[in-house]
Write a structure and sequence with these properties.
75% of the residues lie in helices and 0% in strands. It is mainly alpha-helical. The longest helix is centred in the C-terminal third of the chain and has 35 residues. The two termini are 21 Å apart.
């Protein structure tokens, strides 16, 4: 986008991109729910094959960018293979123990400790390679000398942690606590996603006409934090439809205001030669944030759920404890004959979900503080 639009008009087009991205987050949960209810969860992956093929064809036919000089061999030689490998392995070694800790393995187990040590070594090696070895590093050290760039990467990481974990755990709330199907849970999360779509486009238009970005980021961060607080408090077994719609919409509006404006701020603070690198880092930080957010909230949710359900192990029918614990049948609770046990276990689920939701409050609050360093 930065190659084909002016800096002044970029906000408008980035807003459109943000709206399309938000629209895809609406279609995704709905399609996933339909696949889960009527076909198989595997179709959530199979569907990417035809969609990806169509996308590649469209890009080949309609995206015409200037070709860089040099042969294919020369271009391949310029790739930072070592940096790419170290990035991939270092992040994997960091993600696995975060996801496994307290669930698959104890936090003080050799597997968890060794993976964290390996991650530290690999990421330290990555920093050395990018600074001292690579001629064209995938992560240029120069961009970390720009305060706005560093602040934006951290902000985007925190945004990804909160946004993707919210998308992941809110449908679970509707299915387990409200007893709806996967398809219905996809519909019930629409207020959050509509807020993202609408206010991402609105933020793009405001930026295009005023040239102001920082204020939108601040306001968006504050609104999403308020929404997250409301969700963590009021999303329980007794919450009303109005509360669910209103609080998700508030959170989505905040997310929408910052979804693309942070990228505009980032691209305006670096030289043209670094635009591709900072844009790649921007997207990478958001995705990695999402992975970490889901993993961290998942660890908190699972550990809280495990501790609460242990009390009812002997009171559940044979084999049903594993069903409840593994979330392999989220509607199983609604088929329990003992109303008292069902209500108590649902409250344990509520406690676990609220414990996970509460983690988003300091995450988003931290993003507001970080946004103060963005120009």
């Amino acid at each position: 986008m930065s190659d084909v639009t002016s800096q002044r008009d970029r906000g408008k087009y980035q807003g459109i991109v943000g709206g399309v991205w938000g629209l895809s987050t609406i279609i995704g949960p709905l399609a996933g729910g339909l696949f889960s209810d009527h076909l198989s969860w595997r179709w959530a992956f199979f569907i990417n094959l035809p969609i990806g093929t169509i996308t590649v064809i469209i890009v080949i036919l309609f995206l015409h960018l200037p070709r860089s000089s040099g042969s294919l061999i020369e271009k391949l030689k310029r790739i930072d293979y070592l940096g790419s490998i170290l990035t991939f392995t270092g992040v994997i070694c960091l993600l696995l123990p975060t996801n496994w800790g307290g669930n698959t393995y104890d936090w003080n187990s050799p597997q968890i400790i060794c993976l964290y040590i390996a991650s530290f070594i690999l990421l330290s090696a990555l920093a050395y390679v990018e600074i001292k070895v690579a001629s064209e590093p995938i992560i240029p050290a120069q961009i970390f000398k720009v305060r706005t760039a560093v602040a934006t990467f951290i902000f985007n990481l925190l945004f990804g942690m909160s946004f993707f974990s919210m998308i992941y755990y809110t449908p679970l709330y509707f299915q387990v606590i409200k007893g709806v199907s996967a398809t219905e849970s996809g519909l019930l999360i629409l207020p959050l996603l509509l807020g993202v779509v609408i206010f991402s486009a609105v933020a793009g238009m405001i930026t295009s006409y005023t040239g102001r970005v920082r204020e939108l980021i601040w306001v968006g961060g504050v609104i999403s934090t308020i929404g997250s607080i409301l969700v963590s408090i009021y999303f329980n077994a007794n919450s009303t439809t109005g509360q669910q719609v209103g609080f998700l919409l508030i959170t989505g509006c905040g997310f929408g205001l910052v979804a693309q404006t942070t990228l505009l701020s980032l691209q305006s603070c670096v030289d043209v030669e670094y635009l591709a690198s900072v844009t790649a880092m921007y997207n990478f930080s958001r995705v990695i944030g999402g992975i970490f957010g889901v993993a961290i909230l998942g660890a908190i949710f699972t550990n809280t759920l495990n501790a609460g359900l242990a009390t009812y192990y002997s009171q559940l029918p044979p084999g049903s404890f594993d069903l409840v614990l593994a979330k392999s049948d989220v509607l199983y609770l609604w088929r329990l004959n003992d109303t008292n046990i069902r209500q108590n276990i649902m409250q344990i689920y509520v406690n676990a979900l609220q414990a996970a939701y509460r983690i988003n409050i300091p995450i988003l609050g931290g993003s507001v503080l970080i946004s103060l360093f963005i120009k």
